[in-house]
Amino acid sequence: MNQDKNRNKLKFDEDMIMLNICASSSKELLKELSQVFYDRGYVQDSFKQAIVKREEQYPTGLKTTSIGVAIPHADPVHVKQESLAVGILSDAVIFNEMTSSESLNVEIIFMLAITDSGQHLIMLQALSEILKDKEKLSSIRYAATKEEVFQCILPYIKELLE
């Protein structure tokens, strides 16, 4: 496998999962979860501010049948290594809903750092499968450990990791 192909593979492991996050606002939450990417060298310094700004302009909150979710991301120019981070909140944070901009209580955040538009689409399709599965979404939201969250998500994104 050449180095370029390896670089484009999605990075996701238990260290990319944060449980019981306490945040007073969506902006605070985005900055806190962005730090996970930055600490690993997966994003540019500009990523944190870019993801906050993009969320203000293009909200990513999604209403599911059970639990509010957000899927924020920033433009590829801010990304060094494709990766996924997951945040589970102890208490819901208000995001604007993607299609209506109405306020939405979000309890799970799937933050994307992706450069390739094809991979971005595959990731969104994988996440939409999780969002359709009320039981799976609940398992992620109420997981006691990072390992439980990881094992819930892994089957949906495995092809992006290999």
Automatic annotation (TrEMBL):
Pfam families in alphabetical order: PTS_EIIA_2
Superkingdom: Bacteria
InterPro entries noted in UniProt: PTrfase/Anion_transptr (IPR016152), PTS_EIIA_type-2_dom (IPR002178), PTS_SugarTrans_NitroReg (IPR051541)
Signal sequence range: none
UniProt domain PTS EIIA type-2: residue ranges: 10-160
PANTHER family assigned: PHOSPHOTRANSFERASE SYSTEM MANNITOL_FRUCTOSE-SPECIFIC IIA DOMAIN CONTAINING PROTEIN (PTHR47738:SF3), PTS SYSTEM FRUCTOSE-LIKE EIIA COMPONENT-RELATED (PTHR47738)
Protein name in the entry: PTS system mannose-specific EIIBCA component
Source organism of the structure: Oceanobacillus oncorhynchi
Source species taxonomy: Bacteria, Bacillati, Bacillota, Bacilli, Bacillales
